[in-house]
Amino acid sequence: MSQLSGIDFIAFDLDGTLLDSVPDLADAADKTMRALGRAGVTVEQVTTWIGNGADILIGRALSQSVDVDPDLDPALHREARALFDRFYEEGGHEKSALYPGVKETLAAFHEAGVPMAIVTNKPAQFVPHLLEEHGIAEYFVDVIGGDTFPLKKPDPYALNWLLDKHQITAEKMLMVGDSRNDILAAKAASCYVVGLTYGYNYGQPISESNPDIVLDHFSHLAEVVKLGG
What we know:
Blueprint: E1 4-7, E2 9-12, E3 19-20, H1 22-35, H2 43-47, H3 54-63, H4 74-90, E4 97-98, H5 102-111, E5 116-119, H6 127-133, E6 142-144, H7 157-166, E7 173-177, H8 180-188, E8 192-196, E9 213-215, H9 221-224, E10 225-227
Helix pairs in contact: 1-4, 3-4
């Protein structure tokens, strides 16, 4: 297995990388559509629609397509987003779960003194509770949501902010994600990037986005990252 040496900082995506969250997202999106008198949505549909933040997810649900209808009524879109946020929060994220090996692997990096961050396109208001709920909040020095900064992945803004804040060079940072947005953001920031095959990537193999390393299991990350140096 390939190794990356000299990694001093690791940034992780959340949904589809650490957390299998699509059942709760699909529930909230389905309730939203039905509350608006529109056709419901399925887990299978939502799996291919997430990754670009809640606004685009809701736009796709309203459009019943990965391509958002350019003629969508902005007022309807705002109403649907507000309903989605309410339903998602009320659901308590009860169906979401960490992927196998996530907690143990994060704990090992934390024990080794590796600073880590969350860089997700999920709205920031939901992220701290999810990390606490799954017992991994203590592992992260920074938590960046999709609306923390003016730009979200695939823009490298958040990764560049982390590089600047922690005064590290790009070749010492690793991004770990499951979506082409993660790969594109990391490449734009000149960071190394690991792509995970089990997450949500619009139905496309993550290998097509050409990450530095492709992994099938999160726990294999411990074999890839040669710390320090």
